[in-house]
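HOLO CASE FILE
Compound: nicotinamide-adenine-dinucleotide
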Amino acid sequence: MRRGEEIVMQKILDGLGIGKTSRGAAAGSRWLECGGGVLESVSPVDGKVLGRVVQASPEDCDRVIARAAEAFREWRMVPAPKRGEVVRRIGNAFRERKQDLGALVSLEMGKIRAEGEGEVQELIDICDFAVGQSRMLYGFTMHSERPGHRMYEQYHPLGTVGVITAFNFPVAVWAWNAMIALVCGDAVVWKPSSKVPLCAVAAMNIAGRVIAESGYPDGVLNVVIGGGKDVGEKMASDVRVPLVSATGSVPMGRRVAELVAARLGKPLLELGGNNAVIVTPGADLDLALRAVLFGAVGTSGQRCTTIRRLIVHHSVFDRLKDLLVSAYRQVRIGNPLDAATLMGPLVDREAVEAMQKALGEIRAQGGRVLYGGEVLTGGLYDAGTYVSPCICEVENHYPVVQRETFAPILYMIRYEDFDQALELHNAVPQGLTSAVFTNDLRESEKFLSHAGSDCGIANVNVSTSGAEIGGAFGGEKESGGGRESGSDAWKAYMRRQTSTINWSGDMPLAQGIKFGAS
Ligand code: NAD
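Model generated. Tokens follow.
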């Protein structure tokens, strides 16, 4: 990093309240002494250390959970629209820090600046959504079968919500969960990814201050920065955390699901994808090209919604392949803070190694690399985290294609007829997001029908990547089954209660049962 850039970076860190060494646990704006090991935050941009965090130990996590439980007792009594008012102020506080926090997301995670700021915008949007939701925590009313009775359902705050997040959305996924949980009357304990701890410190500095200034208990919003095995598993096993929302890889989800299920808690799982786009003979190829470029190369292929598989009709396969290769050649790879860069680094060297290993498997299993896949060297590239995005021709059944490699590798697969394309599409263990590019009504309707895509999200002429917050987000099969963010996803963060009130002077029983003398 050049001297001028270092000064800018230091200003960003100072502005976000991040010193050389941060503490790894906070209740609202209060940072707590921690007893865990020291974690270094290394920027994938240039391999330099951005800062250090003294991590939370399982005991620190225990203290924070206790604090959250205490704060919950007060927070649940605050009327929901007033809780919404606090979230509105949190959203405004993030509006003021959008550029700096977006830049930190880029520096610590590696996504380009437009996407870093876009992620903070998503956080702000979900705050706005949650404010509205705070006045719409609706339940149904039913007509009782018993005379003089009334029945209805209501939603109560649930307790403390544990939020475990992945590295690739350092702040937005927390907000998807936390802002909805807050208006629902829950306390939140957040365990961010250890790859992006400073984004969590910055986000808590911003949101924690609002909680403190609002006069509510600091333990309403908490963070514990620590390893998945100790702090994450502690949270997953703790009965004081009725809901654990975990975003990350399938192996992580399996482990969290086991621990939460063992104590009969509620898991909300948002796991890996293996997303495919079907391109039909009549598709608008220009549209498809633009969608695939963003969907496969954006965020350096490190979105859960990244397009991994492109299932293309044989009649347009070569044409689309040529268009893609020439578009890939023009992708500017470099410093994510430069406006001209389209693709930044991968998150760390391990991610680069995992990509290289996958490329070896692709070749060994019969696939062909059509473009890219090299590790780049020279200048900034010597950080060891920069690669060229890659296109491969493969068959869907290869073991390497069946799993998610979290890197910019796009698999191209040929198909002959639409039903075969649907078969190929669904023949993977994951089921997060999907799309078809077609101008044929029958194809699009079949894709969206119960005989079509088996994913939680299915789009027509829209990329799999770049979901809006208004819809419920999540996937099926190994992708976890959870739903977060918009629509009625808020219901997972509350407990549902069905109530019957007898306003008659009689005691009729349901189903017409007569019991005893009357
Ligand atoms: P990861 O599974 O390595 O880590 C995710 C989080 O889980 C981290 O905070 C980590 O510390 C924690 N963790 C790890 N082991 C744990 C354990 N045993 N108990 C409790 N917590 C544990 O994932 P990652 O590399 O950070 O992120 C990439 C993955 O996340 C990809 O598979 C991607 O598809 C997925 N992802 C899914 C979504 C979604 O909404 N479906 C969104 C973003 C990312």
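CASE NOTES: Residues 164-169, 173, 191, 193-194, 228-229, 232-233, 236, 247-249, 252, 255-256, 270-273, 304, 404, 406, 432, 475, 479 surround nicotinamide-adenine-dinucleotide (CB under 6 Å). Residues 275-472 form a domain with the Aldehyde Dehydrogenase; Chain A, domain 2 fold (CATH 3.40.309.10).
CLOSED: yes
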